[in-house]
Structure formats: C-alpha cells, structure tokens
Amino acid sequence: MIPKHILQKIRQIEIRTKHLVNEVFSGEYQSVFKGRGMEFSEVREYQPGDEIRSIDWNVTSRLGRPYIKHFIEERELNVILMADISGSKNFGTVNQLKGEIAAEICAILASAAIKNNDRVGLLMFTDQVEKFIPPKKGRTHILRVIREVLYSQPEHKGTDIAQALDYLNRLLTRRSIVFIISDFLDTEYLKQLRVASKRHDVIAITITDPREIELPKVGLIQLEDAESGEEIVIDTSAEKWRSHYREYNILSRNQRDQQFRSIGVDAIHIQTEQSYMDPLLRFFRKRERKLIR
Q1: One-character DSSP codes across 187-217
Q2: Domain check: are 54 and 91 in the same one?
Q3: Cα–chain center distance at 181
Q4: Residue 163, SS3 per DSSP
Q5: Is residue 8, in this structure, part of any structural domain at all?
Q6: What is the predicted pLDDT for the residue at 59?
C-alpha cells in the first residue's frame, strides 16, 4: 500500500505540473511535436511540385520514370519516457532529490503529450529493465506514471543505459519520441543510443547535482556510492584534489555532450539547484525556431 505522504506528493506534483502545462508549456510541446510523426503510405508516380528528396530511386530506376515515397501525417504520436531509477536518484544536496525532479519532468511531459492527444509510455530501468508501461492516454495514466517514477521500489541499484536501450530498440516498431531522463553516470551506451536515434526522435534529459561537479572545502568527508555502496574518505581541504575532481567531471560532461551531438541526440541539462522549466522551455523554443527555418 502506498504511504499517505507519497499519495500527497503525487497529488502535489499533479497540481503543480498541470498548472505549468496549461499556463506555460503546452504550446511549446504542440508546436514542436504535433504533426512531426510521418507514416509511410505508398509509392506513387512523381508529380510536378513533389519534393525531389522523396524520390524512390530504386523504383525509379526499375520502372524508368520517377516515383516518390508518399507519407501521411500520423495524428497521434507515441511518447516514451525512459526513467533512470537507479540508486543515484536518491541523491540531492540542494532543493530536491534527482528522483523527485525526474518524476516532475515525467509528469510535465506526459501531461503535455496527452493534452496533445498523444500516447505516453514509461520504461524504468536500473542495471535491469525494472518495468515497462505501454503507451496510453488519460489522467489516470498520468497519475500512474508519476506514482511509478516517484514510488518505484527497484530490485537493483546500478545503472545500465545500454541494456535499457537494447530493450527499447527491440520493443518499439513504430517511430516514437523518446525522452531519456537520467544523470547518465554510466559508460558504453553510445552504440545503442546511436541505433535508437536513427529509429526515433531521442532527447536526453540530464540531471546533475552541483556536488557531482564540485566539492566544497569542508575538510574530511565520507562519501558513499549510492549504487555500489562503496565508501571512501577524502580531504576536501586539498585544493589540488578539489581542482582535479572539478576538471575531471567537467571534462566527462563535455565529452558526453559531444557524443550526443555526434549522433544527433538533443540534450536538455537540468541542475538540481535551478528551475527545470527554464531549460525545458529553452529547448522547445530552440527546436521550434529550427522547424521554422
């Protein structure tokens, strides 16, 4: 049975995100994604005014005259939320835990999608796929998405993004919009991410706490890895060590972002000490400007 304080939290998130979607976010989502899904219909003979880029060269060469691939707009899109619920979701040193922010972002995206008459599915993962909820519509479904992300009790604590993407690539046969909500504290997932990005519109939402970039000067502290349970004691009074920690983490993040760009995956960067709405809105408005050009 779900504890009363969790039910209250779910209700608070629903009220808050509903307001944000209705007042701020819904228009941005609709302008970027409505009508972006295209479904193959037929191959037909080229007509004046058709896009040259749509020519099917194989059929054209076989029949000796130009033919094009004709697509029709999908009236409904599939939106898949891939939520990282590994042990690190319970980390946060400022306003909220990373898992709480992930739940609110999932709620906003789900609400905007369903208001746009799209279907929303949820895939939760650690170093295993913990649960998959097929795409559906409706307020009850949104509440389930929030509840699952916020209150999930995963069997594992580690992170394996590659395995989750493998599962997704096998599961989805229809082109979808895929949001991966994670801190991306993992490696060796680029190959699977590249495959997913060719089949789907993939957006990476990275959630980072400031202590994952830089440590304060507070002397000896004990740190525990939320996923492995490993503990270490470090002396943060050493400027050289803090500088190395900061430089290593910034370099790792820059390399990750470069990898995203190299395979055409857009990224939204969320910091736990800042509002997540500003990065979300900047991303959607930037995408909208690209579509207009």
Answers
A1: -S-HHHHHHHHHHSEEEEEEEE-GGGT---S
A2: no
A3: 4
A4: helix
A5: yes
A6: 85
